[in-house]
Amino acid sequence: MERGKMAEAESLETAAEHERILREIESTDTACIGPTLRSVYDGEEHGRFMEKLETRIRNHDREIEKMCNFHYQGFVDSITELLKVRGEAQKLKNQVTDTNRKLQHEGKELVIAMEELKQCRLQQRNISATVDKLMLCLPVLEMYSKLRDQMKTKRHYPALKTLEHLEHTYLPQVSHYRFCKVMVDNIPKLREEIKDVSMSDLKDFLESIRKHSDKIGETAMKQAQQQRNLDNIVLQQPRIGSKRKSKKDVYTIFDTELESTSPKSEQDSGILDVEDEEDDEEVPGAQDLVDFSPVYRCLHIYSVLGARETFENYYRKQRRKQARLVLQPPSNMHETLDGYRKYFNQIVGFFVVEDHILHTTQGLVNRAYIDELWEMALSKTIAALRTHSSYCSDPNLVLDLKNLIVLFADTLQVYGFPVNQLFDMLLEIRDQYSETLLKKWAGIFRNILDSDNYSPIPVTSEEMYKKVVGQFPFQDTELEKQPFPKKFPFSEFVPKVYNQIKEFIYACLKFSEDLHLSSTEVDDMIRKSTNLLLTRTLSNSLQNVIKRKNIGLTELVQIIINTTHLEKSCKYLEEFITNITNVLPETVHTTKLYGTTTFKDARHAAEEEIYTNLNQKIDQFLQLADYDWMTGDLGNKASDYLVDLIAFLRSTFAVFTHLPGKVAQTACMSACKHLATSLMQLLLEAEVRQLTLGALQQFNLDVRECEQFARSGPVPGFQEDTLQLAFIDLRQLLDLFIQWDWSTYLADYGQPNCKYLRVNPVTALTLLEKISREMKDTSRKNNMFAQFRKNERDKQKLIDTVAKQLRGLISSHHS
């Protein structure tokens, strides 16, 4: 029973499920009925479902039939009406078809015209759209074309401005076009191209001004020279305004309106052509020679591109390198002035450019950078000048170099650079200039002294006399009264040396010009240099002449006369220096000239040389002496060599008439003393072992000849027998032996008024021993005559006795 209940329950559930499926089929769209049917086939009651489905279909058919039967009459009526309408519709169709055929036939041309109108309107619309688009693109293309033209003509800064307008204003309006995208992609490349090209122009500019800096500097220095000449002209006139040009006058106003900058050719690298301007009266300004637009353009371009600092660093780095090249002097710079001039021109040109850049740009270079470069340049320039000027031995070149350095310093001072160190260095070069002058004048003095004839200057007319007096300050009333022809006491080297001293002073004065020195400093410099000329150069030249081996007594005498007159002229040299420096000699710290001392020393050296020369001549004559010390014959005249010697001395002292009295007297006394000393040495020389009284008599005749010469007064001014005193030692010695007055000598020895006061016991003993040796040899040869032997023995004993007493005197004197 339970099973029956379960079956019944399942049958109810199946029936309910089938009912649901049927409702779903009735209500669901046929496109979605698939899943519903699948659920039927998936079940086990497929047959029963089909039965219910058939039942449901029959029910619906019966309902349809009922509804059709209900509306059948209405349907039939409707069909009848439709059949009527169909006939009328056919008629209408025929009429419409006929009308359409007629309309088509009639409207065919209109359709064609309308089609053509349609095409025209379409083209018009397309053209209008195209024009609108082209109107948007045309400014872009024009700007791009303008950019290309500016790039082609190297107007880089305007090109950069155009590029900015193109990028930010025009391209955004047409950015969807393909060609615009190409332009946008090319913009960074164009910027780099402008940057590279402008940098290339800058490099060309830097290279060009490096090559042409000497031309720029030359022009600047010419300007400074013209300004200095103008200042010198109006030096005594009252001035309005500054002495120096103002910066406003110095700098040329440059057009920085780069939008209107004219295009530059490839050869235009910053230096303008000024070849034809050299003939103009006015020298063009240094900045007029340079086109700085490449620098300005590149600076603006890099500033716009945001790379100004990079540009500044590059510019300064390159200019530092160029400065080092400019400051490197050529190895042969010292050989010519042009070498120095080119060196200075390059330095001036470099700093003129930098100074202009400083004042015409904002921050590209600054004062600290300029000062750093100038300090480096100043130190290197001074070092180079010290080195190269030390090789220079030509004073004219040194003087030209000094003038060039002054112009160099004045030029740079115009541009505000400190140049005090250059003027300090010029003071060092001044010492070198003095040395070169001294060397030059040493040669001049040497030539004057070597070419002089050392004879008084003869004059045969008043014109010649005035010419000499005009060259040398000489006044002599007695000489003026003498008739022509007459002679000056000095030789030609006196006026020549005097004039050369003045020329030397002028040369020193030339160097002091434009050094901004006071009159006192100039005076001190000239006096110190002149003192060096006198005490060193002229003194050495005179000493060299005096010490020459072949110098004669006549030349020495003339040198003494000449130096005496030069010594007197020193006061005129003092006046000459005072006149050209306007510094009175009484001024405190004024250096005095040492010319008097120089000429005195030279004169004293000449005097000593005269004495030495005379003595040498006397010695030469004495070398001719040929005494026969063993002769027994008594001569009656002086020796020939001595007669010649006395004649030489007489002729020599006759030349001493123009010498100062003391000089002539000293020379004469010196000669006589040397002659007396030499004769004494000749008599006492060790080689003469023996001598006879006969030889002593001959020697006495020679001494008498000397005494006669002394008494004759060969040089005026000696008092009484002063000159004879030179032979007093010989005279007393000879008188002692010839008169054999030993008793008097021995008795009076040591007394102040004794007769033989000048006879030394040693000298007397030496001569006595020579006579004793001769007598002993004679006695041995003549031993056949007893009487003679006895006399000789007595005399020999006397000699031995005297000798013994002389030895006693000598011993007592030493004790």
TrEMBL record:
It holds the Pfam family EXOC6_Sec15_N. Residues 421-770 form the Exocyst complex subunit EXOC6/Sec15 C-terminal domain. Residues 82-109 form a coiled coil. Keywords: Coiled coil, Exocytosis, Transport. One of its GO terms (cellular component) is plasma membrane. The keyword Ligase does not apply. The keyword Ribosomal protein does not apply. Residues 52-221 form the Exocyst complex component EXOC6/Sec15 N-terminal domain. Residues 258-283 are annotated as: Disordered. GO terms for biological process: exocytosis; Golgi to plasma membrane transport; intracellular protein transport; vesicle tethering involved in exocytosis. It comes from the Eukaryota. Residues 273-283 have a biased composition (Acidic residues). Component of the exocyst complex involved in the docking of exocytic vesicles with fusion sites on the plasma membrane. Belongs to the SEC15 family. This is Exocyst complex component.
